[in-house]
Amino acid sequence: MKLDRSSSIPDLSVVLPAFNQEGEIQRTLWKVNDVLTRAGIAHELIVVSDGSVDRTASVAEQARVPFTRVFEYQPNKGKGEALRFGSAQARGQWIAWVDADLDLDPVMLPSFLAAAQDRDLDAVIGSKRHRCSDVDYPPLRRVYSGIYQAVVWVLFDLHVRDTQVGMKVFRAEVLARVLPLVLVKRYAFDLEVLSVAKHLGFAKMEDHPVILTYQFTGTSVNRRAVVRTAWDTLAVFYRLRLRRYYDE
Hints:
- The protein is 40% helix and 19% strand.
- It contains 8 helices and 9 strands.
- The radius of gyration is 17 Å and the shape is globular.
């Protein structure tokens, strides 16, 4: 673990879940740090190597990016668990979630934080469907994503246009209340977080544009992931609407 060299409370903690990202993690850290430094945002970066079998954690430490802490654990537990773990380590007034693979350009982070602060929001949610978003991703994924978001709108009355994009900013106290109640560790984690947040009264959420370019070839969608996402989504609905699991 590399200790944070900052003695003050940062404005923004950026949690970067990473799985087998030794080839990209240093570039990611330096880019995120550069964007936030240029914007004058006091920040910390939290890398969570989620059961990586390569050198993700050690390479991240070797980057020596200021105000960075690196954590790792075994085995792989899923992106949701990495976000939960990293958020628990965060010290900022606001907490950002950013995928470590740079599919999403971190240049948008300052505008996410500005929107949250200026409009006193509970969460700012990256959206591929925002009219100002610049996105490049396969057509089949667009279809699956559109169907899923329509289901989310109907089942959860959650009026955000895209729950699954890997860039979000939350008020720290929102996650402190919500994450202890969340059970999903993988595909529907974001949906559960947003649904529980709204259920607990943290309903001030807004969509925000993103710059998205998938860094892979091919347009296939993993069938297992689709089935698991559907199952987890129905489980969240059951806990929220029928069992009342999240009621305080």
